[in-house]
Amino acid sequence: MPTKQFWVIVYDISDDRRRTRLHTALLDYGTPVQYSVFECWVTAEQFRKLQARVRQIIRPRKDHVRYYNLCAACAARTQSTQTEITKPEAVMVV
Question: Among positive and negative, which fits the CA dihedral 23, 34, 69, 42?
Answer without folding.
Answer: negative
